[in-house]
Amino acid sequence: MRSESGTAAAPAEPGLTTPASPTAAALLMLTAAALVAVTTLLAKALGRGVGGEPLPPFMVSGGRFAFAWLTLLPFVAWMRPSFKGAAWKLHAARSFCGWAGVSGMFAAAAVLPLADATAISFLNPMIAMVLAIPMLGERIGPWRWGAAATALLGAVVLIRPGLAAFQPYSLVALAAAVFMAFEVVVVKMLAGGSTKAGEPPIRILFINNSIGATISLAAAATVWVWPSPAQWPMLVAVGMVMVTVQALFIQALKRADASFVMPFFYATLIFASVYDAAVFGDLPTALSVLGAALIVAGAVVLAWRERVRAA
Question: Is residue 179 part of a domain?
Fold first, then answer.
């Protein structure tokens, strides 16, 4: 899952069952991909000082979680979900990793071409696969190792260590992918029985965004820069769009297997490239296209293999 932060693969949330509808699932995931790219574009604009002073990544992630929480609040008041039996420690770990991943992603997006930052974040399913060995006791076969190696090669092409084109913020994007991978593993732990099977999506979203808002606002207070009148709507939009992405993601996973719908999420790269070119004039280089293609190829092979194993 691009997890609750918004980027790449995770299993369906526990207890989510809806009649299968692959076409609807694909359309929901494509919509989520388009909206995730919007949030990275907004983060880039805020980080580069569009409409005011450049805002630190902690400020942008603070806006993401705080306004997502406010967006959810009326729905929680209406639906009144029960919070009894929630695995708070796992939810807290998930939210911290999601906040760290989002903050790193927003920091990288402010400096790198959006397609590069997005592609590096797509390493998180591979990293989660490796982390699942010690944390979940999973066994990894040659197909999955091959997918991971392909994606890693793509990351090396994008990051270009030791070359003049190397950009340190590529490592920030890589760190964000690691935190997102930890979040994916924690989601798997939640899905494996740490919470009740009937846990509703609204409860999952509200817990995640409540804890995330607490962490992110505390971090934002340490680097506070007062947003300009033009920047407040962008911060609000980041939060509202991200919670919409979370809802779309969950709804897509209710209608089809993760191994089927996740490849559609990689359309985020296309949307990010188009938005970046249209707004900032940043066009991907040939090496960027090659690196992104290798990472996506590895991710698609991994998703296909998961589908074969589940059959």
Answer: yes
In a domain, 37, yes or no: yes
Asked whether the beta carbons of 138 and 57 are under 8 A apart, the reply is: no
Query: Beta partners for 2?
Result: 7, 8
The SS3 assignment for 25 reads helix
**CB contact at 8 A, 12 and 19:** no
Tell me the CA distances in angstroms from 295 to 29, 235, 243, one per residue in order.
19, 30, 26
d(CA 22, CA 25): 5
Task: Write the pLDDT tens digit of every residue in 175-214.
Answer: 999 999 898 788 777 655 444 444 577 887 899 899 999 9
CA distances from 71 to 32, 138, 205, 244, 247 (A): 17, 37, 11, 9, 12
Count how many Cα atoms sit within 13 Å of the Cα of residue 66 in the half-sphere of its side chain.
18
Residue among 258, 225, 191 nearest 15 (CA): 191
Of 191-195, 215-219, 299-303, give the lowest mean pLDDT range: 191-195
In a domain, 135, yes or no: no
Work out how many domains the chain is built from and give that number: 1
Which of these, 30, 27, 26, 84, lies nearest to 200 by C-alpha position?
84
Can you name the residues that pair with 8 across neighbouring β-strands?
2
Q: Which domain holds residue 231?
A: 22-127+162-283
Closest CA to 61 of 213, 186, 167: 213
HSE, CB side, 13 Å, CA atoms: give it for residue 55.
30
Considering the entire predicted model, what is its pTM? 0.80
Q: Domain for residue 120, yes or no?
A: yes
Structure tokens at 177: 């992918």
